[in-house]
Each structure stands twice: as C-alpha cells, then as structure tokens.
Amino acid sequence: MKTLAYGFPKLGEKREFKSLLEDFWKTKISEHELIDGMNTLKNSIASLYTKHVELFPSGDFSYYDFMLDTAITLGAIPKRFGEYKGLETYFQMARGPQALEMTKYFNTNYHYLVPELESKDFRLFKNLPLEEYSYLKQKGYNPLPKLIAPYTFLKLSKVLKKSELSQLPLYELLKIEHQADMEEYLNAVFPIYEEVLKSLKSAGATAVLMEDPALCLDTEDWEWELVHETYGCLSKHLDVYVLTYYDSVSDYKKFVELPVRALGLDLVSNGENLENLRKFGFPEDKTFIAGIINGRNVWRANLKEKLRLLEELSKITSELIISNSCPLFHLPVTVEPEDSLPEGLKERLSFAKEKLQELQTLKLAFEGDERAIEELEHSSRLTQQAFGVKEDIRKRIASLTPQDFQRDVPYSERIKLQQEALNLPLLPTTTIGSFPQTEEVRKTRSAYTSGKISEEEYKEFIRKQIEHVIRVQEDIGLDVLVHGEFERTDMVEFFAQRLEGIATTKHGWVLSYGSRVYRPPIIYGDVHRPKPMTLEEITYAQSLTDRPVKGMLTGPVTILNWSYYREDISKEEIAYQIALALLEEVKDLERAGIKIVQIDEPAFREGAPLKKKDWPHYFDWAVKAFRLCSKAEPQTQIHTHMCYSEFNEVLEYIYQMDFDVISIEASRSKGEIISAFETFKNWDRQIGIGIYDIHSPAIPTKEQMRAILERCMKVLPVELLWVNPDCGLKTRRWEEVVPALKNMVETAREMRAQVEVG
Ligand code: GLN
Ligand code: ZN
C-alpha cells in the first residue's frame, strides 16, 4: 500500500503566497523576486509531502489559478488579450479590466477562471506541466505530474457565442452541452495533451495524475464513451491515474472500465462509491486510489474506523493507494499556531499538514507499527465525544411548523405595503453593502484586537466611517443606503464571532481566488445568538439620514457553506439553528425601525450537490432555512444577494426563497443570467442585475452600464429592476468607487427619465 496526497494549500503558513502576489502587483517586488519567492514555497511544500507521503504531484502550484494555467498550456487565450507577454498577460486574463469570468469550482468556495474558447485551434502554447515537473525533478524530488483532464477542462470552459462577438462586454458564453460539440472539442484538445504527456515521458515521468472531477456530475453515456476513448489514447504514452472527488462518480461501472492504470474515488463525501465498490468489486488489473482522508473538513479522522475500511478495501482491490478525498487546498495549512480555540477543540482538528500525518499514520498502522496503532486508539477516543449540545435549541428546531417558513402576506400584497413605506423611484439605486476597507480601517481594527486602542475608541472610529459613508452615498444620490460594513472583517466570520457554537481561528486562512483569502469558521456546537449582532451600527447609520438604510446580514446557507461544519448532526439542522439566530436579529432590526433587511446568500448555489438527483433535498432545506430567518413583517422589505455562481439552472429554487428583492452578479458573467429570465415564466420579484464589475479596478463607463441595463429591460419589466454593482465594494479604493457609483446613478437617472417620457 502506498500513500498519495495532492492539492496542498500553496498559501504558506504566513500567507507568503498572498504577499508575494500583491507586492508584485503593486510593483514593490520584481518578477524575479516573485518567481524566487514562489519557488521557495513550492520547495517547502514538496519537502513536506516527501516527509509524509510517497506520491505527490507537480503542477499543483499555480500563480493564480489552475484552470487559467490549463487554458494557457492549451493556447486558449482570447484575442482581446493581444500577444501573450508572459506574466503581464497572465494577470490581465486573471484580473484585468476584461478578465475571464470567475466562478466557483464545483460545490466549493474556490473560484476558478472560466476558460473562454474562441475556436477549436488549440496548440501547445506553453508547456507548464513540463516546466513544473522539471523544476521539482531538478530540485531532487520525484513528483507525479498532475493535470486537469481534458473532459473536466472542457466541461468547465465556455464557448464564445459568435453572433454577438461585436457586443463586448455583452457577448455570451455558453457551456459545451451537445455530443457533437463535445466530441469535436475533445478531438481538438487531446492531441495537445498527448504532446504534453510525451514531453513528460522524455523528462522521466512514468505516470501522470489526471484530475477529472466532472465525472461526478450528471455524466451522460455518450460522454463516458468519449472519455473512455480519450483515456485510451492518453494511456499509450504514460500510466494514467485518474482522480475524482467531491462526490461519487456518476457511473461506477463505466468508471472502472476506463483504460487507465489507476482510479481514484472519494470515499468521504457520500457513501455511494463505497457501496458500488462492495457491490461490483474492482478490476484486478488496476490500482485503486482510496480518497479516505477528508480533504475538505477540519475534523481529525477516526483512524481506527479508517483502518477497518482499509482492511476491507485491501480484500476488494489488488493494489491500493490511500489519499485525501479531494484537493487539500480547502483547508488551512496547519492547526499548530492556533492558541485560542475553545477548550478541547484543537486536538479534534486536522488541517492540511495534519491530514498528511494522518495518511502516514494510517499506512504505518496498516503495516503493524505499534506507535501508529496507539495513535489510532487516541484518534478514535477524541472523535467520539459530543460537543456543545444545547437542549432548548434542539427542542425549538423539533417544534418548527410550516408557518415558521412562510411569511404572513404574499409578495403581491407585501410589495404595496413596502412601496408605501419606502416611496422609491423607478430603477432604485443601491449598493451591495461593503465600502472600501482601507488600510486605515484594517490598521485600526488590528489595533483594537491587539489591545492598543480601547473598545470605545474603536467604536468611535467605526461611527466616523459610517457617518462618512452615509454622506458620500447621499452626495452620489443613491436611493437605498448601507452602513458600509467597516466593522466586519469578513461577512461570515463577523457573525461566527458573535454566535455561540462557532469557533473562529487566528491563522486558518484559505484561498478563495487569486490572492484573496478568508478564514472559514468552525461550527462545532449548537448555534445560538447571545445578543444582537448588528443593531448598533445599523441603527446609528439610519439615525444619520432620511433615506432607508439596509440592515445587512449573512444568510444561514452561506454561513454554513463557508464554514467547516460538525458531522454529528445534519446540515439541515445546523442551517435551521443559524436561521433562528438570524431571525432574532431581523426582529430586533424591525423593532428599531429598519425598513429593509438584506440577507446575503452568495453561497446558496455552491452548496448544491453535483448531481441533479440530489438537488431537491438540498434546496428544500436551503430554501427553508432562508425563509425561516426572513419571516419578517409584511412591510419589511427582504433583500438577498448572490454572486459568482451558475444561477441559471437554479432560478426556480431561488424564486422559492420568497424574498422581495434580489441583487445578482452579472457583469463578469456577461449576458448569461439575463437570458435565463427569458425562459423563466412569471418572474415577479424585484431584481438588481449587477451592472458594475467590482472585481476590476477599471471605472465602468455610463455606456457600458447602460448597455447591460437596456438588455435587462428587454427581458424584465422595468418596474422590477434595481440598479447596483454586482457585489460589495470592500476590495476597491475610494477613488474608484465614487466615480463609478456616480456613473451608475447618472445612468439610472437617464434611463428613468427616458422611461417616464415613454
Ligand atoms: N454584503 C456583502 C458585501 O457587500 C456581500 C459580499 C458577497 O456577496 N460576497 O461585501
Ligand atoms: Zn456578492
């Protein structure tokens, strides 16, 4: 038996990756220094792997995103980026004014860049897999080159719809859905993969890891056939090890027939793969890669149970490799420096580094090593204790009735009451919530957390920021204001710190895209709200202005999906616990005179399982959790916000959430979301389709914003439309935000005048 690990977080224990990238972007360091720094990180990860496991990859370390790297390898570089000038073009594609669309990787909170396929002319443009492999090789390591498999690459890419090529930025990007298309695209890319494999072979590689998680989606029979053929060709050059993860493969029998050397399955995310293994066995002539250690959740494994499973697996399969269940980059680097977790929690946790140790221990125990066997006993004791149980919360959840999930008055009536209370113009303008988190804001917060300034001083500072942002918004002429979220580090962490039953870490950073990191909280006990969480800032903001200020909350599904969660009760129950805590907050805001409450759910879509058959169950409780926390008075206007996901297929479920207004990201995903409304029957909720791409420093022009708005007006009645950016402004600078919002408000006013004239 061998051990394999992959996807180790590239961030570094001190977030070195982030600093390097950002210093380079700010031209504080040279390209040479950037590369040097990245190489140091790369080496330290390789040496860590070497210490704990036998097999590990090269090609795991992208400067921005692995899908972008794959696109560049294959020469899929849209023409608008011009001639490829190394890192300059690379980062233009990632974060320039006309950057690629960004969306979440399967059901995770990692955002990848969506390759845009303008044609089927692929070529080996830059052999990144070879460069990475040769680099580690020359440093004395012996890695397995790792690539995104052709099928997954194409499933995650989008094709530019030709007819609208001229209408940038409103051109449409479509997924490859049809058999003939997929076949042509596969035929076009696989020769490039062949070239890469040949070059790897000449450089000394004997096998290659192919990540093919798209095989866990709803894969059709004809897709399996194409995948089968492709692997048949690729296997001629090198031994292929296929990795699948995040779910069970859609067709076990077809999967195990793939003509490759080794097959990897996720044995953690659900029980289906294991069931199938037991039922149908495993081909004798292939190696089985058992994804046995959870790569996504932070709990220490019950290694005693895992060993039992391994013993069973070793009877079913002839050759066994054990590995993490999915890439490890969903985890922080190590739990070692955490020193302020709730009593008893730290020893129950395992982050990426500890996962490598678990794999190692498991292997040693399997081979009969005594110390490792003792370690197994220890882990089994630790993982079986109950933690943070609150009987009254359990009872409240058990006694929920259908009324708890239903507002008292239907939308058609609510809207009238709300309009009376708010008196908003046509095409009302607003923002999504956060305003620039400047250096000053961050410094003052850290001065407060480290005790350098008092709580009163900090609160006074926040009040000043709120006052400023209220005045700025009034000057710009926005209709519905926000308080700016200056007191929040992160939209989930902020609530996690104020809720009982959820722990937050000091150093547990994880990359969400590019250099952006966040610290997912850890839900370890029953969740409840000891006291109001947002009341002070919101009511202060409202006291400064006559215009409505939105109360700003993060929704239950997003808090859950962006946290690590306990596994001893269902996700549904955790979501309801969080929802009840948020409902108390909504009630407090209403009592304080707040007329609009926005409950953000950017992670609503991403939590959906990979296969559509599992959607009804997920969306049933996700929708219910949202409705539970948003059961406000009829005249209170409930907003929600979503971004950076594929929403088109789930609009039906989104509609069921029964909000009054939704704001949804659209600038980067171009016209796609708008088209979805063309086919949606009877959409009657108000909606703000983001017309300003906040992930780019570029200031959108009135023409650009007008074009998107006009497109929306073709599809949706103007009475339903709001005007807003596509997400929060916290990563932007004031110098960008003010002129951009001015343009946005002017655009709305011009359109308003136009509509009113008729
Ligand atoms: N209200 C949050 C903000 O404006 C929403 C962020 C998000 O959707 N990711 O920052
Ligand atoms: Zn957003």
Topology summary:
Blueprint: E1 2-4, H1 16-25, H2 31-52, E2 57-58, H3 66-73, H4 87-95, E3 102-104, E4 111-113, E5 116-117, H5 128-138, E6 144-148, H6 150-156, E7 158-160, E8 173-174, H7 179-202, E9 207-211, H8 221-234, E10 239-243, H9 252-256, E11 262-266, H10 272-280, E12 287-293, H11 303-316, E13 319-324, H12 352-366, H13 370-382, H14 391-398, H15 411-422, H16 439-449, H17 455-476, H18 493-498, E14 500-503, E15 510-513, E16 516-518, E17 522-528, H19 535-543, E18 550-554, H20 556-561, E19 564-565, H21 571-591, E20 596-600, H22 615-629, E21 637-642, H23 651-655, E22 661-664, H24 672-679, E23 686-689, H25 702-715, E24 721-722, H26 734-757
Parallel strand pairs: 1-13, 2-6, 5-7, 6-9, 9-10, 10-11, 11-12, 12-13, 17-19, 18-20, 20-21, 21-22, 22-23, 23-24
Antiparallel strand pairs: 3-4, 7-8, 14-17, 15-16
Helix pairs in contact: 1-2, 7-8, 11-12, 11-13, 12-13, 16-17, 21-22, 25-26
The structure holds glutamine (GLN) and zinc ion (ZN).
The site of zinc ion has 7 residues, from loops.
Name the CATH architecture of the domain at 396-757. Answer: Alpha-Beta Barrel
Summarize the amount of helix as a percent range. Answer: 40-55%
Describe the largest sheet. Answer: 8 strands, parallel
Task: Tell me which ligands are bound.
Answer: glutamine, zinc ion
Overview of the structural elements:
With 758 residues, the chain is of the alpha/beta class. It has a domain at 396-757: TIM Barrel (Alpha-Beta Barrel), CATH 3.20.20. The strands form 6 sheets. It has an 8-stranded parallel beta sheet. A 6-stranded parallel beta sheet has the order 18-20-21-22-23-24. A 3-stranded mixed beta sheet has the order 5-7-8. Strand 21, helix 23 (651-655) and strand 22 form a beta-alpha-beta unit. Helix 16 (439-449) runs antiparallel to helix 17 (455-476). The longest helix has 24 residues, at 179-202. The relative contact order is 0.09. Bound molecules: glutamine (GLN) and zinc ion. Zinc ion is lined by residues 432, 602, 641, 643, 665, 727-728.
